[in-house]
């Protein structure tokens, strides 16, 4: 929860600085807050997908290709036996994933709601 509040504060500071630079135009704060919130949300989604192991098979195939190229060049002399189970069962954990998802979704939802209130 501490990281979520820190991310919210960083978003507020960035949005405030951007709106000051734009001389407090009507929607500059909301636009910047929404964009930063969506960046948080997208990075959170990327971390979430990475944690669940979506890219493990891709990393395995690139490592196998790299080893094959090194073996053909003669750089790799020892045979490293990697199995696909080593990559599939690998656990990744990022400590900011939930904070990024929560703060990005919260910021984006609030800014969309405020924008609709300004329109009507």
UniProtKB/TrEMBL annotation:
Coiled coil: none annotated. Residues 31-115 form the DUF3899 domain. This is DUF3899 domain-containing protein. It comes from Romboutsia hominis. InterPro entries: DUF3899. Keywords: Membrane, Transmembrane, Transmembrane helix. Pfam families: DUF3899. The chain crosses the membrane at residues 5-21, 27-50, 100-119. Signal peptide: none annotated. It comes from the Bacteria.
């Amino acid at each position: 929860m501490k990281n979520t509040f820190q991310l919210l504060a960083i978003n507020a500071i960035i949005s405030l600085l951007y709106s000051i630079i734009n001389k407090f135009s009507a929607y500059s704060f909301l636009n910047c807050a929404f964009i930063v919130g969506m960046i948080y949300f997208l990075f959170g989604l990327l971390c979430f997908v990475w944690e669940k192991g979506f890219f493990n098979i891709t990393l395995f195939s690139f490592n196998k290709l790299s080893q094959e190229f090194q073996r053909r060049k003669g750089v790799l002399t020892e045979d490293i036996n990697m199995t696909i189970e080593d990559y599939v069962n690998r656990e990744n954990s990022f400590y900011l994933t939930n904070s990024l998802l929560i703060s990005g979704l919260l910021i984006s939802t609030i800014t969309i709601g405020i924008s609709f209130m300004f329109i009507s």
